[in-house]
Amino acid sequence: MNWKLLLLGAALVGLVVVGFLIRTDEDEPFELTILHTNDLHAHYDSFEPWGEPLQGGVARLKTAVDELLDEDDDVLFLDAGDQFQGTLFFTVGGAQVVADVMNELEYDAMCLGNHEFDSGPAVLAEFIDEADFPILSANTEVSADPYLSGEILPCEIFRIDRRPVGVIGLTTEHTAIASSPGSHVRFLDAIDAAQRTVDELTEDGVDVIIALTHLGYARDLELARAVTGIDVIIGGHSHTALDPYPTLTESASGDPVLVATAHEWGKQLGNLRVLFTGDGLVNSFAGAPIAIDGSIPEDEEMLEILGVCRPQIDALMTRVVGATDVELNGAREDVRSRETNLGNLICDAILWKAEGLGATISIQNGGGIRATIPAGEITMGQVLEVLPYGNQLTVVALSGEQLIAALENGVSRVEDGSGRFPQVGGIRYAFDPALGAGSRITSVDVWDSAIGEFIAIDPAASYTVATNNFLANGGDDYSMFADAEDRYDSGWLLSDALAEFLDAHQLVSPEIEGRIQEREP
Questions:
Q1: N or C, which end of the chain has less CB nearby within 10 Å?
Q2: In what helix (H) or strand (E) does residue 277 lie, and over which residues does it extend?
Q3: Do residues 108 and 158 touch, judged by C-beta distance below 8 A?
Q4: What is the pLDDT of residue 488?
Q5: Mean residue pLDDT across the chain
Q6: Quick count: other Cβ atoms within 10 Å of Cβ 371?
Q7: Residues 6 or more apart from 355 whose CB is under 8 A from it?
Q8: Reported pTM
Q9: pLDDT for 6 beyond 70
Q10: CA angle, 309 then 371 then 215, to 5°
């Protein structure tokens, strides 16, 4: 789309405004179409969830985008983050395949998501260097990072139909604990950064302003109501499917603000048409998300780009490591809120692998479980889709008091679908979501192998807990893990531990056992 839009490259650090930036015909109404995606998580192939029709696929997405661009010149195509991680395309192709796919789609700008930091700043810098579009985040401070310094812009200004349009990027502050940004990257308050950047844009004659965010839908609504000067918010992070679309709310000054997001995994292409008044306020709007499904033909050039990764993906996907006679439930809404048989299986595999290290309890964050496995043979490819992050098995010593605190943290945001929710092994717990965060755990029992039954946890006792290195480093606010005095990093990949467990057992049939019990209000 570079041939349709003039990117003015205006980072608001020492922004220099030249004469042609100031708009003409300021009393004229102004129309803009915003196409948008979010949370693709490298779901580049079409897929067919159980009981649902075929959907998604970037080759189909490319066709849909191109058709819309042929019909309309006044368009911005934006991505609200989390292109990294989630399928074997990223496992095999890394940052390069993400850049290749997004360049072919011809995005105009992207906001950083938390998962863009999963492989560290160096890999993110590789992606930014390959991307043909600006990477935005006004609240991500990277000046001290040797890889990212100078690579991330707070905003970009586009000129559409002689009118400057500002796009501001905002990234969830939880990235500091939900990913691996390193010690040199800081995440500032998104609302403060937004207002500061809006004010600078407004001073320089830009009054049509879009916030491109990876904050989550609830936080987007908070942003809309707290900041003056934002007209449209294009969001991601919470994987929200909006109905109706978009959401209409008001800013701190009472002006209309539109909030839109496009579900997840390329299932939808957001399509929002906005008519602005002469002074840059939302006057009216239309549009609806476009379902990316089997009715849309696949773009051949995109298929060729994906084909580069096929041989390695096929090799991984076809190696059988075991079998299951029941579906292994890794649904996002379940692993982040309740016990699932796949969560139990993973935690059992962790304990099995860490037995020689003295571990008797295992904890796996639900957000690290990324796919469901149907009944039948299980391939290494499926294991890697379930556990795509390359996390390693780590063992820590925790007191009973620390362990209870860990579980409290794990259920503290269950109503938000937070990835910190704890799937467990060697332990069972009950919680009451009606109670306040920090006081929801109502009972905790640990398995005593000597007597063959569960006993109440002893807050003063020491327990050896196996988990993944992300949590052991304090990720997802598990600070008590990071504070543990005794720690051993095994170097074993979590995905390998699960594959070895499956290979050793050949056929598994995990069940719901009452490890996690929710007390009804």
A1: C
A2: none
A3: yes
A4: 85
A5: 91
A6: 18
A7: none
A8: 0.75
A9: no
A10: 90
**Residue whose C-alpha is closest to residue 381's, from 324, 323, 318:** 318
CB of 260 closer than 8 Å to CB of 232: yes
The amino acid that residue 375 corresponds to is A
Domains observed in the chain: 28-307 (3.60.21.10), 319-518 (3.90.780.10)
Q: What are phi and psi of 115, to 5 degrees?
A: -75, -15
Residue appearing with tokens 């863009």? 116
Interaxial angle between packed helices 121-130 and 88-105, expressed in degrees from 0 to 180 and rounded to the nearest 10: 30
Q: Which residues of 426-444 are buried (b: 16+ CB within 10 A; e: fewer)?
A: bbbbbbbeeeeeeebbeeb
Distance CA 432, CA 436 (A): 9
Instruction: Identify any residues that bridge with 493 across adjacent strands, giving them in sequence order.
Output: 392
Burial class from Cβ neighbours inside 10 Å (0-12, 13-18, 19+) for residue 466 reads: buried
Asked whether the beta carbons of 410 and 336 are under 8 A apart, the reply is: no
Tokens representing residue 502 in the block: 């499956």
Q: What is the pLDDT of residues 377-397, one digit of tens each?
A: 999 999 999 998 878 899 999
Q: Helix and strand tally (H, E) in the chain?
A: 15, 28
Going by the DSSP 8-state scheme, the letter that residue 484 receives in this structure is -
363: nearest Cα among 491, 515, 467:
467
What the block records as the tokens of 204 is: 């320089």
- The token pair that represents 300 in the structure block: 């051949």
Cβ atoms 39, 283 nearer than 8 A: no
